[in-house]
Amino acid sequence: MKPLITDHGLPAQIWNSAPQLANIPVINTHSLVPEGARAVVIAPHPGDEVVTCGGLLQLLASLGHPLQLLSITDGSASHPGSRQWSEKRLSVFRPQESVEALRRLGLPMHSLKWVRGGFADSALSDQETQLTEFISRYLRPGDVVFSTWRGDRNSDHEVVGRASFNAAQHCAASYHDVPVWAWHWPERDQHLIPWERARKLRLDTWTVARKSHATHAYASQLKGEPAIGIAPMLPPVLLERMRLPYEIVFV
Prior knowledge:
The protein is of the alpha/beta class. Helix content is about 35%, strand content about 15%. The chain has helices at about 15, 30, 50-60, 85-105, 130-135, 155-170, 205-215, 220, 235-240, and strands at about 40-45, 65-75, 115-120, 145-150, 175-180, 200, 245-250. The protein has a five-stranded parallel beta sheet, sandwiched between helices. A two-stranded antiparallel ribbon has the order 6-7. Helix 3 (about 50-60) runs antiparallel to helix 7 and helix 4 (about 85-105) packs antiparallel against helix 7. The longest helix has 19 residues, at about 85-105. The chain is globular and about 50 Å long.
């Protein structure tokens, strides 16, 4: 079945078709992360920290909250079989893209706590216990943890989400899911979204612009290689969604 096409030419995915989006309760930064609390963002792959929380990170940094970023993998398996983007090249290049993306967000790089896990991407499903133990080492009571939704239909996202949730419980930290690919499910799957848990964090125009600019720092992910069947990891439809004036988290 071909996807439905909306009047603006984009497939009728949840992010641009679900009527529930307009009715999601608004939450503010202070309600998500109490004053003095540390925010911990856990990204399965380089770029996930911007796609999930690029706006929130900017708001928290402007309020002086301490920030901890955990990058679980280096994303080096994103282009299997590619000569241009071999695993060896990507293992170096993608972390450099993250540095540039965080700089574009305006984060305080001198004080940002950033840990790279070095796990192999696309191979996390058998390492959930090790992931939970790894994440637990960097959490402390009272932290507010954000990671990819445990129901996102991406194996790495779901495993990291579960490991982050379990580690947060173990360490007496709070945890929030952030959906990524769920917003690009077809509109017929709207009923599978836990709308009752969804909260909307509003972003101003400048914050949205910096987030979009940061997303474009991931040059290796913007173009695929059609000749060997590799699609862009950051397709135009996702970049379009990055310009929405809000982020949504599940509380």
